[in-house]
Design brief:
This protein has eleven helices and nine strands. By secondary structure, the chain is an alpha+beta fold.
Length: 369
């Protein structure tokens, strides 16, 4: 993943790329996204056997004790392959939220299952507006005898239809708090989404009662801000993988497709298109790498680097996905070709955790503009 990453991370990337090329070629991807769960449990179990879900989790909770740098390496390869599993939202985002804001009991009860792949835990944050902001949280948690009653509907919950537990952001009299809610207590429905390779769901909590210790002790709004930073960095790594895969697809096709007796890659317009894609992908890599290093190191620069990476990588991924379709011409618009799957993922990730304009505003505020 570039100059900031050592031999250990590069070897992890090579292993992951080989695994995805063998286990998730195009035909297999199209098969598994049509399954009710949206991914293949056998693939998920193999990933767990390799220790991937355990990356962020300390050894005391059954994890591998690595960090966000290694997770970013894996997520980049997942972006190249359009991996449809809940890895980013369960093994990275939910795991980080529990480690950052959960009690010892939360960590002991949930992290071992996340680490070995037997438990899928996902955040349930967004509602009608789709915002990952305190103002967008309307779901209510009302104090009751020895616990809380949660009422509201979460929308666009990634992998919400297969989760075993949710980390629910809800509004209390003190602002926003987070609660661990078992999936059995909720009503859920998978949505027809633009991105066919990442399942989304609506999740409804109709007067769900949870005990008092279901509430995460950390300040809810601080934890929400942390979730956006971690999600932005992880998604930026995914977008780099997606952008580079689109570049590879375009260059390969430009070499193979002949027109007027010569490869279309020899035409200046196609050369310029591929060169522009390369610039976008390499610049996105620099931004994503810097943000991943800052997150792994706990660097204060993450405040600026996370929105920078999310805004730039979102636009770079969408640019490369769109130009890949253009290079492929007519075939790039067909259902049978994979180009549209990459475009759909690029467009959906552009909006996730806030669109580029939102993150540029965050960056401007944080640097005092």
């Amino acid at each position: 993943m570039g100059v900031a990453f050592g031999e250990e991370q590069q070897e992890l990337a090579r292993v992951a790329r080989r695994w995805f090329s063998e286990r998730l070629p195009s035909a297999e991807l199209r098969r598994v996204i049509d399954l009710p769960e949206g991914f293949d449990r056998a693939h998920w179990d193999e990933m767990a056997a390799m220790g991937w879900q355990a990356m962020l989790i300390p050894e005391e909770y059954g994890g591998a004790g690595f960090g966000h740098l290694e997770a970013a390496v894996l997520i980049e390869e997942m972006g190249r392959a359009l991996d449809p599993t809940p890895y980013l939202f369960s093994a990275v985002l939910a795991a980080d939220l529990l480690l950052t804001g959960g009690s010892d009991a939360h960590k002991e009860s949930l992290l071992p299952g996340i680490a070995d792949g037997t438990r899928i835990v996902v955040p349930a944050v967004t509602e009608t507006t789709g915002e990952w902001e305190p103002a967008g949280v309307a779901t209510e948690a009302v104090a009751a005898d020895d616990g809380w009653v949660i009422t509201g509907t979460k929308r666009y919950v990634a992998h919400g239809h297969v989760a075993d537990d949710y980390l629910v952001a809800a509004r209390t009299g003190d602002g926003v708090s987070w609660f661990v809610v078992p999936a059995a207590a909720a009503e859920r429905r998978r949505l027809d989404a633009l991105d066919l390779t990442r399942a989304l769901a609506d999740v409804r909590f109709d007067g769900v009662e949870v005990p008092d210790d279901a509430r995460l002790p950390a300040a809810g709004e601080d934890l929400l801000e942390r979730a956006v930073k971690v999600g932005s960095v992880a998604l930026a790594a995914e977008q780099v993988g997606l952008a580079e895969r689109c570049l590879d697809m375009a260059v390969s096709y430009a070499k193979e497709r002949h027109q007027f007796g010569r490869p279309i890659g020899s035409f200046q317009a196609v050369k310029h298109t591929c060169a522009d894609m390369l610039v976008q992908a390499e610049s996105a890599r620099a931004a994503a790498s810097a943000a991943a290093v800052a997150l792994a190191a706990g660097d204060d620069e993450l405040d600026e680097l996370a929105p920078l990476a999310k805004s730039y990588c979102s636009e770079a991924a969408l640019f490369c996905a769109g130009e890949n379709i253009q290079v492929h011409g007519g075939i790039g618009f067909t259902w049978e070709h994979d180009a549209h799957l990459y475009f759909r993922r690029a467009k959906s990730t552009q909006l996730m955790f806030g669109d580029p304009a939102h993150h540029r505003r965050l960056l401007a505020d944080r640097i005092g503009l």
